[in-house]
Write a structure and sequence with these properties.
Blueprint: E1 2-3, E2 7-12, E3 15-20, H1 24-27, E4 32-34, H2 36-44, H3 51-61, H4 66-82, E5 86-87
Antiparallel strand pairs: 1-5, 2-3, 3-4
Helix pairs in contact: 3-4
């Protein structure tokens, strides 16, 4: 999977905001507020990456058990799919 083009992550006063750019501004109504881990995942999604690779990256970066990280990552992926900001191969 990979992040769709036309979205940019900004850190504004210690808050991570995913914002549409270009043609996406009119198609995407609003912005998405991300926490630190979600922003980390978004950065990883700038290149093609599998779910298992994302999970390993989260486990390497943060002190979290695998089951919790896996469930949270799946929920985040579904949320990002719901916003239509990532694409699958």
């Amino acid at each position: 999977m990979k992040a769709k083009a036309g979205f940019v992550l900004r850190n504004v006063v210690d808050e991570f905001i995913l914002m549409p750019t270009g043609d996406n501004i009119g198609q995407f109504n609003g912005t998405v507020l991300l926490n630190e881990v979600s922003a980390f995942v978004w950065e990883k999604l700038q290149s093609q990456i599998s779910r298992d690779e994302l999970l390993q990256a989260v486990l390497d970066e943060y002190e979290v058990d695998k089951d919790t990280a896996s469930k949270d990552l799946d929920a985040l992926i579904e949320t990002l799919r719901g916003y239509n900001v990532i694409e699958d191969d």
